[in-house]
Specification:
The chain has 367 residues and is α/β, with parallel strands linked by helices. The protein is built from 18 helices and 12 strands.
């Protein structure tokens, strides 16, 4: 994303009353944020939901002053910015209606791993919860998932640490900007998380640390993942909101049960009781329900075919899709430097071999 486009997008996000849903609505009508902010009053008032107050805010000059400050911080601190229409934007988050227009990260993160799970829980983890978290992630490690959590006290930081100890990638989603670390006690883990994955947020660099921000953070934690695992939780708290978002996004939710008298098992027990989460007692439960064991068998079968059946051009397409995930026909043609007609024929052969599958919109992905 070039600096000019980023500047206007940052300015649009500074407009009071413009959240992610409204911003996406405007960006679907106009080509980009610059066009939105330069649009005539007559064209803006025709849009449903744009009243006089929001119209006035869209025409404010102060938004550009704030955008300039934010752009300066981004460039100065080498922050990576991902726009919701970029191919690098997390695919699962693209399908969340309220997903952020911009994501900020400390490094460029790869989201092509199909196995991404969020592991969250109470800030007041018990010895039982801590042991389950460590064992759970250790047992998952053979499947090489990415572990997402919120870098908070308790289960969150244990999940990050267990991922690092088992040489798994882990991403910490923050409820504030990238120039701060909260809680401060976790600064000692920053380097380890950076080396194993990185930090991600939707908040501008100097955002204040507000309670409401952490609820917004939880929707990203849920949206990024194939499944959310709640290890311990009281009846109310961040983990319960993460589970709610995951259910709204039609993602799998798992909860570890506990005794009915245990304060930090009540939330998990309630989720299970009302069928808002599936009961699990081990990592193997998650593996079976998500069919990771079947995926591994399919991958092994395909890998055998690669060495026996694939031509050099087919192998090139396979390697490209393995790295990038699902892609349109035209982009495969450009990236693999082959004519479209040739790529189309090769994709058909690979489909018949059970290696790829076509998707709507002339998209293709590996099985």
């Amino acid at each position: 994303m070039d600096e000019e486009k980023l500047f206007y997008t940052l300015a649009l996000q500074q407009v009071e009353g413009v959240g992610d849903l409204t911003a996406k609505k405007l960006l679907n009508i106009f080509e980009d944020a610059e066009e939105v902010l330069k649009a005539s009053v007559s064209s803006l008032v025709k849009i449903e939901g744009i009243g006089n107050r929001l119209l006035s805010n869209l025409k404010s000059k102060t938004i550009f002053v704030e955008a300039e400050k934010e752009l300066h911080n981004i460039v100065k601190n080498n922050i990576v910015v991902t726009y919701f229409r970029d191919k690098e934007y997390p695919d699962r988050l693209k399908h969340c209606e309220d997903g952020p227009v911009l994501l900020f990260s400390t490094r460029r993160l790869a989201w092509n791993n199909p196995r991404i799970v969020s592991v969250v829980g109470t800030r007041n983890a018990t010895a039982r919860g801590e042991e389950f978290c460590r064992t759970f992630i250790q047992d998952l490690a053979v499947y090489n998932p990415v572990i997402i959590s919120g870098f908070a006290f308790g289960i969150d930081i244990l999940a990050h640490r267990a991922a690092i100890e088992n040489q798994l990638k882990t991403v910490a989603v923050l409820g504030h900007g990238l120039l701060d670390i909260y809680p401060k006690a976790h600064r000692k883990y920053v380097a380890a998380v950076e080396s194993s994955g990185g930090f991600l947020t939707e908040f501008k660099t100097r955002s204040s640390i507000d309670k409401e921000n952490f609820v917004r953070r939880n929707r990203i934690v849920a949206g990024l993942s194939e499944a959310t695992i709640i290890i311990e939780s009281a009846e109310k708290g961040g983990s319960i909101s993460t589970a709610r978002f995951a259910n709204e996004y039609n993602r799998e939710v798992f909860a570890v049960p506990g005794r009915i008298s245990d304060k930090y098992s009540k939330g998990c027990n309630e989720l299970i009781k009302w069928q808002q989460a599936q009961l699990i007692t081990s990592a193997q439960d998650v593996v079976q329900i998500l069919q990771w064991d079947q995926m591994q068998k399919t991958t092994a079968k395909i890998q055998k075919q690669l060495f026996e059946d694939l031509s050099d051009d087919e192998q090139k397409i396979y390697d490209y899709l393995r790295i990038t995930g699902k892609q349109p026909l035209d982009l495969i043609s450009i990236s693999c430097q082959m004519a479209v007609y040739k790529v189309g024929a090769l994709l058909l052969k690979m489909e018949l071999k059970g290696i790829i599958r076509p998707l709507p919109g002339k998209m293709f992905e590996l099985l």
